[in-house]
Amino acid sequence: MNRLWQFFEACGRFISAHWLTLVILIVILAGFFALMAWRHLVKYSLKRLGASVLTLLIIITVVFVLLRNMPEEGFIENYDKLSKEQRLQKLESLGLTKPIYEQFWNFLKNLFRGDFGKSTKYSINRDVMKIIAEKAPLSMILGVISMALSLVMGIPLGAAMARKKGKFWDRFGTAFIVFINAVPAAVYYIFIQLYGTKLMSIDLTFSRGDPVTWILPIFSMSLGSAASYAMWLRRYMLDEINKDYIRLARAKGVPGRKLMFRHVFRNAFVPMIQYIPASLLYTVAGSLYIESLYSIPGMGGLLVQAIGLQDNPLVQALVMIYSCIGIVGLLLGDLLMATIDPRINFVKKGGVR
Amino acid sequence: MKLFFEGKKRRVEDNINQAAKYAGLSDEELFTLAEFDPDAGEKTGYSNYSYWRSTFRAFLHNRLALFMLIILTLLVLFTFVQPLLPDQYDPLKVQTNPLNNSKIISARAPSTTTVYMSVPAGTMLYAKKVDEEWYGVRNSGLTIQSTVTTKGSNLVYFTVLDYGEEWTKIEYEDEIYYIKKTDTDGALIEFGFRKLTKPEKLTDTPYVTYSNNCIALYAEPEDISQDGDYLYVEAQYLDVREDGTAVTKGETELRDYPSKMPFLLGTNSAGQDLWARIWSGTRTSLWIGFVVAVFEVLIGIVVGIIWGYVRALDRIITEIYNVIDNIPTTIILVLVSYIMRPSISTLILAMSLTRWLGMARFIRNQIIIIRDRDYNLASRCLGTEPARIMVKNLLPYLVSVIMLRMALAIPNAISSEVFITYIGLGLSVKTPSLGNLIIEGKRLITVEGQQYQLLYSSLVLSVITISFYIIGNAFADAADPKNHVL
Amino acid sequence: MNEPILSVKDLNLKFSLRGQTLHALRDVCLDVYKGESLAIVGESGSGKSVLTKCFLGLNDANGYIESGSILYEGMDLAAFKKESEWLKIRGREIAMVMQDPMTSLNPLRTIGAQILESINLHQKNLTPAQAKTKMLDMLDQVGIYDPEKRAKQYPHEFSGGMRQRVVIAIALACKPKILICDEPTTALDVTIQAQILKLIKTLVKESGITAIYITHDLGVVANVSTRIAVMYAGDIVEIGTSEEIFYDPRHPYTWALLSSLPQLGVKGEKLYSIAGTQANLFARVEGDAFAPRNPYALKMDYVKRPPYFELSPTHKARTWLLDARAPKVEPPEIIRKLSRREVDLNG
Questions:
Q1: Nearest to C278 by CA among C286, C290, C294
Q2: C19 CB near a chain A CB, below 8 Å?
Q3: Cβ neighbours for A280, distance < 8 A, ≥ 6 positions apart
Q4: Which residues contact residue B385 at a Cβ distance below 8 angstroms, ignoring those fewer than 6 apart?
Q5: Which of A268, A316, B198, B429 has its CA 20 to 30 A from that of B253?
Q6: pLDDT tens digits, B132-154
Q7: How confident is the model over C67-75, as a mean pLDDT?
Q8: How many H-runs (helices) and E-runs (strands) does chain A carry?
Q9: Using CA atoms, how far apart are residues C63 and C51, in angstroms rounded to an integer?
Q10: Where are the CATH 3.40.50.300 domain residues in chain C?
Q11: DSSP-assigned states of every residue in A269-338
Q12: Which of C195, C116, C205, C105 is nearest to C155 (CA)?
C-alpha cells in the first residue's frame, strides 16, 4: 500500500509539474497512434484534436474573462486588513490594472510555463500548482481503485441483466440503475456515510493510515459508474442479441455461453470503450462530493473549499484542469473507438458524433 | 379506456357474427357461394392502428409507471395545494414560543408544539379563555396529584378516578376511597375519608400544602407557569367553572401555545417549520426543473430546425456543437454559479446552457431523416407539402421526446441543484429548495436525534426524482412504435 | 417418393404478447423428403419463417409449441427444451441462410474468422491449418475471388451479394443435411438475385442437401423448387409438386397468388391483387381464415374449417370447393391459361 502510495504521489507531482508537456505528449502519441493505424484515421484524429484544442482555448478564454469580472477581493489575500492604497498597489503588482488583452496575453504566457498564479485565501501566496500537486495523488489512487471496482461491479451486472432479461438480476439491476440515476448522488452518499460508518463503527472521516476508512468512499464513488456501465452494457447487449448475425450464429450452432461472450458481449463492449477514458479521468480527478464528505485531502475537496473561500486563482486552475480532463477523456475515447471499430467511416463522418 | 378496446372487439365479433349467420343452414345451402364484400377483408386486418392510442395503451400496461404517475400527480398537486390549506406555517418564519419568545429549534416531529407536561384527570387549573377552542391555564395550586405522602415520607400512588365539588374519588390497591375536601391539616393517615381544604384566594395558594403526616393532595406544580405565563389547553379537555378555575376532564397535555396545526415534521435548526419548508422547497425545485425543461425544448427546437433546414449553417452549428459538447457539464454549472449571484435564475441559466444540445441534435437528425428518407421523398413526389410531412412524421416523435426530456429534466435539475448547493453556490436558506434542505439536513447528521431533518427531505426528493425518471422512461418506451402491440 | 427426412405433424405454435395470444401456426402438417427442394410460399406474416425457425429452436422466447411434433431422425424437435439438445441440430443437421446479408454477419469479426467458427464447431478433428484451408476452399466455392485476402476483411468491405455468398459459405461449412433459405434474395439487387439462386441451387445439388426455401416470390419458386407448400395465416392451404401447383392449382388463395404474378398479366389488363389484409391471428379464427378475402367463399367456409382434400398422392388442398357437395367453380381466366401452359413462367 505504502509503495503504491509513493508511486501515485510521484505521479501526481510529475503531472502537475509537467502538465503541458504531458498534454503535448498525448497529442503526439495520439498522432503517432493514428499514423500507425490507417491513413484516414490520421485525418480524423487531427480534426478531432483540432476541435479539442479549440475547445480548450475557448474554455480558457471564457474562464479568464469571467473571473476578471469577479469582485477584486478574490484576488488579494487579507483584503479586509489592507488600506485602499495597499489594495491598489497589490492589484498593480498582480497586473490586474492593465488592459484586459494585455492581461490575457500574460495569463496565456504564464499558463504555458505551468504558472497558474498564487493562492490568495486557501494557503496564502503558495503556488496554486503546488497545492494541487499535493492533493492530486490521493485523488488518483482512490479514483483508480473505485474505477476498477465499478467495472468489476457494473460489467457482470450488465451482462447478467442482458442474459436473463426479466429475471431476478435484471429486476435488481434495473432498480439499482433507476435509483442511482434518479436520486442525486449527494443524497445517497450522505446516507451511505451515515449508516455505513455506524455499521462498521468507524469515524465519519477518512484517515489515510486506516484502510477500513477507505472502503466507504471507494464504494460510494464506484456506484455511479457501475450503474451506468451496467445500464449501457445491458442496452447494447440487448441491441446486439436482436441482430440478425446473432441469429445466424445461433443457427449455425454456436453454444449459448460462447455466443454471449464471443459475439454479443464483445460487440456490445465496443461502443462502451468510448466512454471509459473519460470516466477513468473523471474518477481519477476525484469526486467533489466524496472528498469533502469524508474530508479526504484530494483535488475534489479542494475545489469545494476554494469556492467557499472565494480563492479565485485556485478555482480558476481547478476549473481548467477539470475541463482539460474532460476534453482529453473524450478525445482519447473517440480515438480508441476509431482504432477498435473497423466500421467507422471517417471520411463521411465529419462533424456530429 | 373503453374506447380503446372497442375497435378490436368489433373486428372479432364480425367474424363470429358471420359464422353465426350461416350456422343454422342446411348442407345444401352451406355449399353455395357466400356474398363477397371486398371491404370485409380489410376489416380483418390491422387497420385501426393509431399511434397515440397505442402509446397510451402501452403506457397503461406499465403498472409501476402508472402507480408512480398517480403518486407523483398527487404529490405535485399537493405541493401547490399545501399553502392554501388552513393553518399552514410560513416556511421562512422562525417559530418562537410565545411564553418566553425563545426559538423552537430542532423540535422533534410529530406535533412539536412542545408539550410541557401531561396532567391527570381532575387537575385544577386557573383558566383564561383565549378563543373558542383554547384556554390559557395557570397553576391553581389546587391540583390533586396522584401521589400521596404518608407518614415517614413514604410515597403511595393512587389513581384519581373522579373529581367533584366536595369529594375526590380515588383508587388505591383495588379499593375505592373518597377524600373529602374540607380539611387537610392533621388529617388521619388511615385510609377512609380524608379532608381537603380549599384556600381562600387562588393566587395565594402555596404550591405544596401538606404536612408530613398528611396526604399531599395539592400538586407539586413543577414548573407550570412559574413565571406567571400561561400554558395552553384545548377547551374540550377542560371543565371550566365560573370562579375562573377549571378541572381537566382526562389525561391532558399542557402545551406551549395554541395551534391547530402541530409541526408535522418538526422544526429545523433555525426554528422554521420543516413541513412548510419541504413543500415550499419542492415547489422551487419543480419550478426550476420545469423552466429548464421549457428552455431546453424551446432552444432545442429552434436551433435544431435551423441546424437541420439551413444547409449553409450546418457546418458552423456542428462545430459549435462539438465545442460545447466537449466541455464537462459540471464545470459549466460550477463556473456560472461561481461567477453569478446565487439565485433561481442563475441556476436556471447554468443548467439551460448545455441541456438544449441533445434536443437540438435530435431535431436536426430527425429533420435530415425526414428530408432524405425514401418514403418521405416518395410522399413529397406525390405532392405532400413538406410542412405536412413534418407534422405527420416529426410530431409524434417530438411530443414523446419532449415528454421524456421534460420528465428527465426535473430529476436532473434537482440533482444539479443539490450539487451546486453542496459546493456552497446554491440558493440561500431564504429560498427553500430541496437542495438546501438536503444540505441543511446533512449538517445535522452527526447530531443524535436530528437525522429526521435529512430523512424527510430526502424521502420527498427521492419520490419525486424516481417517479419522474420512471415515468419518463416508461413513456419513451411506450412512444416507441416498436413496442406497440395490437 | 422416399422417406421423409423431416416430418411435421399438427404443429400448433402460439406467441404470447403482452397478455394477448397470437396463434401463429395452426395445425401445420408437412413432410420434407430427402434431397428435394421444397418451397414454402405465402405473404408476409403467414407463418412461413416461424415454421422453419421451429426446426432450429430459434423462435423468440415468448413463442411456445402448444401441440404437435417435428420428427427428425427419430427425435422430436418440438419436445426440445434445452439448449444442449438444440446444439446437436443447429448447423450440424439443419443450417440456415437469412434474408438480409447486410446484417447477418458480425461486423466486428473478419469474414474468415466467422467461417472458421462454423467449421471448428462442427468438424472438431481438423487442425488449425486444415480448417483454414477448408475455409479458403469454402470462400472459393461460393465464388469469392482472392479468398486469402478477402478472408482478412470485415463485412463492411463486402457488397450485399458478396455477403450473401459468405453467409451461404458459413451455412454450408457446417455440413448440414437440410439447408433453410429464408428469403435469400429479397434484400438483394435483381441482377444479383439470379446469381445467388443459381449458386445455392448448384451447391445444394452437388452436396445432396435437402433445401427448404421460404419466399413470397413465386418467380424464385418456379426457378428452384421441386415441391411447393402454400401457407396462409399459419396454415398450409395447398401443397403439391411445382407442376401441380402452377398448372393445376385448386385453392382460391393459390389462384390469387398466381394471378398476382406480373409475368402472367395480360397487356392492358389490370394486375390482380388480393383484396384486404391477412386475418388477425390474435383473434379466434372461425372456419377458413381466407374466407373474408375470398370471392369464391362458400357459406360453409365461414362455419367450419375445411379438411385436406387429396387430389393426388402428392397434391392436397384445404378448401370446401373440393367437396363433392360444392358447386363447380371455374378458376379465373389467368389460371386457366396457365394450366393450358400458355404462359412461360420464366419469361
A1: C290
A2: no
A3: A143, A144, A147, A329
A4: none
A5: B198
A6: 777 777 654 444 443 444 433 44
A7: 87
A8: 17, 0
A9: 11
A10: 4-225
A11: HHHHHTTHHHHHHHHHT--HHHHHHTT--SHHHHHHHHHHHT-HHHHHHHHHHHHHHHHHHHHHHHHHHH
A12: C105
CA distance A268 to chain C (A): 10
Dist CA C134 CA C140 (whole Å)? 10
Which comes out higher in pLDDT, residue B332 or A96? B332
**Residue A167 belongs to domain spanning:** 2-352
* Residue written as grid cell 363433392: C324
Q: What whole-number distance in Å separates Cα of residue A306 and Cα of residue A314?
A: 6
Residue A96 is placed in which grid cell? 490586474
Give dist(CA B288, CA A98) in Å, integer: 40
The per-residue pLDDT for range A271-294, each reduced to its tens digit, is 888 888 878 777 766 677 888 888
Closest alpha carbon to B445 in A297, A197, A295, A308: A197
What value of ipTM does the predicted structure carry? Answer: 0.79
**What is the grid cell recorded at A131?**
497545492
Shortest distance between the Cα of B478 and any Cα of chain C, in A, equals: 13
What is the per-residue pLDDT for B466? 92
Could you tell me which residues are beta bridge partners of residue B137? B127, B231
- Residues in chain A within 8 Å Cβ distance of C103: 243-245
Could you tell me which chains touch chain B, where touching means 3 or more CB pairs under 8 A? A, C
Can you tell me the distance from the alpha carbon of C9 to that of C15, in angstroms, rounded to the nearest whole number?
A: 19
Could you give the number of structural domains in chain A?
Answer: 1
Residue C227: alpha-carbon gap to chain centroid: 11
Inter-CA distances, A318 with A295, A315, A324, C273, Å: 18, 5, 10, 71
Q: Which chain B positions have a beta carbon within 8 Å of C303's beta carbon?
A: 19, 22-23, 25, 30
Q: State the sign of the Cα–Cα–Cα–Cα dihedral A275, A280, A286, A290.
A: positive
C4-225: CATH homologous superfamily?
P-loop containing nucleotide triphosphate hydrolases (3.40.50.300)
Asked if A247 lies within 8 A of C98 by C-beta distance, the reply is yes
Query: Residue B480: its chain C contacts at CB < 8 A?
Result: none
